[in-house]
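Notes to self after the Tuesday call (sharing in case useful).
The group wants a holo model before anyone commits to mutagenesis around the pocket. I volunteered. Ligand is iron/sulfur cluster. Logging inputs and output together so the record is complete.
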Amino acid sequence: MHDGPGIRTVVFLKGCLFRCVWCCNPESQSRQPQLAFVEEDCVNCGECSKVCDRNVFTSFFGRLKVRHDRCDACGKCIDVCTRKALKIYGQEVTSDEIIAEVLKDRSYYEQSGGGVTFSGGDPLHQFGFLTELLEKSKAEGLDTCVESEGLGSVRQFEELLPLVDTFYYDYKMTDPAVHRRYTGHDNEGVIENLKYLCTHGADVVLRCIIVPGVNDNAAHFKAIAGLGNEFKAIRRIEVFGYHDFGAFKYRRLGMKYGMKGKRSVEPAQVDEWISEIRKYGCDKIIKG
Ligand code: SF4
Ligand code: SF4
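Result:
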């Protein structure tokens, strides 16, 4: 209910070119399926290591250690773990399988004005598959949303335009150097693509996450309001505060969390930021 109008099914496509330090969906960064280990559910029975032929599991002082870098996500260990301490994030599916799943809830979409949302990662990372899904969704008469970080080419967004009812578009940082430092990429293309969408008939909801010490500054707030004021196509701007809800997933995936120890932002702080952005004359700002 938060990823477009009405009640929706959200399809998460794995793969993203950004590596935002605060990312709450680390399982969506890599395009490949990945093994997750829920250590608190493991009883160190050793069954997983008996079936794994890649030496992923070792025992260390009575605790199971997982070498994620050795795993090819074959899934054999999942079946033998009676504690359900192992799982695979991501699976290969066809577009027909996805659409069939999405259509199971058609009556909800019809009653609520909802539909299907393609998210990620950044769904543009699997561009051919995304367009296939969108074409099939449209053939079924579904309302479509795409959530994007904006790092595709203008040509890709041009191709998406007739297939997408609403773009949920992330605008992370205004300063290019800060953008590069915290996401691994420039924001030049992101801004160019946003402007293209806004001047070519797209319906856009801008999403802005504010991270204390990173982008909670007047220049960024002014730029957010400026985009809202300049482009009619930006229907709404949703402002979020940083949260650490995804931190546990980094542990499960054997990944390093770059925001370790940083606490989630209080709702009152987000209200304050929204007031500051509104001071620049933009009335489209809401709490995300
Ligand atoms: S099979 Fe499951 S419970 Fe047993 S050691 Fe492996 S992860 Fe732990
Ligand atoms: S998914 Fe396959 S390779 Fe990975 S740990 Fe399990 S059995 Fe080993």
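Two things stood out.
DSSP finds eleven helices and eleven strands in the chain.
The pocket of iron/sulfur cluster (ligand 2) is lined by residues 35, 51-52, 54, 56, 71-77 (CB under 6 Å).
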